[in-house]
Amino acid sequence: MTTHALADEARCACGSGDEYGSCCGPLHAGRRAAATAVQLMRSRYTAFVVGDVGYLRRTWHPRTRPGALELGSAIRWLRLDILDTVAGGPFDNRGEVEFRAIHRDGDGRHVLHERSRFVRENRRWSYVDGDIRS
């Protein structure tokens, strides 16, 4: 899978409004860890946008991480909307984030609506799993 780099001064794909170099970029590069479950969710979405499989695997809890992860090259991620959060703050050990991720592929426009679960262990947040919503 080829990654599609974002310039540090480009607007971050996660929708925060910040520049990639001060938003998700340092997390992808391993210079810092996500402080909250929402921040990890946003950085994982951006990793899908740029095709950073390594980051997605590193931030997936070992108990639920798939053996292989292949990203569809025909998918173009368009927007992330955070709908709800439960806990997941810098002093919590668990959190949930409900989101909608809009993408386009050869068959048209689609929406991934999920309520994701995260855990914080050894001061690092990990994605555990999620329930797809309709």
UniProtKB/TrEMBL annotation:
InterPro entries: NTF2-like_dom_sf, YchJ-like, YchJ-like_M. Residues 36-130 form the YchJ-like middle NTF2-like domain. Belongs to the UPF0225 family. This is UPF0225 protein F8O01_12490. It comes from Pseudoclavibacter chungangensis.
